Automatic annotation (TrEMBL):
<dbReference type="InterPro" id="IPR024078">
    <property type="entry name" value="LmbE-like_dom_sf"/>
</dbReference>
<protein>
    <submittedName>
        <fullName>PIG-L deacetylase family protein</fullName>
    </submittedName>
</protein>
<dbReference type="InterPro" id="IPR003737">
    <property type="entry name" value="GlcNAc_PI_deacetylase-related"/>
</dbReference>
<keyword id="KW-0862">Zinc</keyword>
<dbReference type="Pfam" id="PF02585">
    <property type="entry name" value="PIG-L"/>
</dbReference>
Length: 236
C-alpha cells in the first residue's frame, strides 16, 4: 500500500454530516495541518436529524457548533455548511452544482471524500447521504474544472484539483497518523452531545474505540497507525 501523495498545499474535505470527518479522517487532517497545509471543510448538511428526541431546529445549530470546535482541534478554521436536508440528500445536478461551486471557491489541490459504496462490509448498509454526497462530490471535481457544465458558475472561474482521496474500506493508499492519534480523539470528543445520545457508553470509551478501529494498521503500509484512502487522479 502506497503513501497518499503530499505534494500539495490546499485540501478540501467534503462530507455529508458533522462527525463524519472525525471518524478517522481527522487524524490525517491533523498531520497535514501540522505540515503547514491549508485544509478546509464543506459539510452538505448540518446533521439536524441526527439526535433522537431533539428537534432539527435545535440540533442543527448544536451540531454545527460541535463540528466547528472539532475542526479547530485539528487546525481547520474554515468550515462551510451547504444546508441540504439531513437524511434526504439526493444525488442530483443541483448537488453537483453546489459542490462544484464550493470546489471553485476553495480551490483545493486535494479533495477528500467519504466512502460512497452501497455497504461498509457485507450486511452493513452505507448511509444514503454518504452515497449521494460521495458520488456527487467525485463528479463535481471534474465539473469544477469545466466552464460549460454549469456555465452559470462564472465566478469564481473553473478550478481543477489534482487528487481525490476517499476514506473507506477500499483503500489503495494510506497516511501515517501515529503522531496525531490524540488530536483525532480530541476532535471526535468535541461531538459530545451527539455521542452521548448515540450510546450509553461513556464518550471517552466511544472515542477510543472508534479511533482505534479507524486508524488500525494497514496491510502493506509501514505505520503503527494509519488512515486508508482510495486515491483518484485528475488533470489539475
Amino acid at each position: 500500500m502506497d503513501q497518499v501523495p503530499e505534494d500539495w498545499q490546499r485540501g478540501l474535505v467534503i462530507v455529508a454530516h458533522p462527525d463524519d470527518i472525525e471518524y478517522g479522517a481527522a487524524a490525517a487532517v491533523a498531520r497535514w495541518t501540522g505540515m503547514g497545509k491549508d485544509i478546509r471543510y464543506v459539510l452538505v448538511t448540518s446533521g439536524e436529524a441526527g439526535i433522537a428526541g431533539m428537534p432539527p431546529a435545535e440540533a442543527g445549530p448544536l451540531r454545527e457548533a460541535e463540528e466547528i470546535a472539532a475542526a479547530e482541534v485539528v487546525g481547520v478554521r474554515e468550515v462551510e455548511f451547504l444546508g441540504h436536508p439531513d437524511g434526504r440528500v439526493q444525488e442530483t445536478l443541483a448537488l453537483r452544482r453546489d459542490l462544484a461551486a464550493a470546489i471553485r471557491r476553495h480551490r483545493p489541490e486535494m479533495v477528500v471524500l467519504f466512502h460512497f459504496g452501497e455497504t461498509w462490509a457485507p450486511g452493513y448498509v452505507n448511509s444514503a447521504d454518504h452515497r449521494a454526497v460521495g458520488r456527487a462530490g467525485l463528479d463535481a471535481i471534474s465539473d469544477a474544472g469545466n466552464e460549460w457544465i454549469f456555465p452559470e458558475l462564472s465566478d469564481p472561474p473553473p478550478w481543477s484539483a489534482r487528487y481525490a482521496a476517499v476514506v473507506g474500506p477500499n483503500a489503495t493508499h494510506a497516511v501515517d497518523v501515529t503522531s496525531t492519534i490524540d488530536l483525532a480523539a480530541a476532535s471526535l470528543a468535541a461531538h459530545r452531545r451527539y455521542l452521548e445520545v448515540l450510546s450509553e457508553e461513556p464518550v471517552e470509551s466511544q472515542v477510543r474505540a472508534i479511533i482505534d478501529m479507524a486508524t488500525s494498521p494497514k496491510e502493506g503500509f509501514p505505520a503503527a497507525r494509519a488512515v486508508g484512502f482510495e486515491l483518484y487522479h485528475f488533470g489539475g
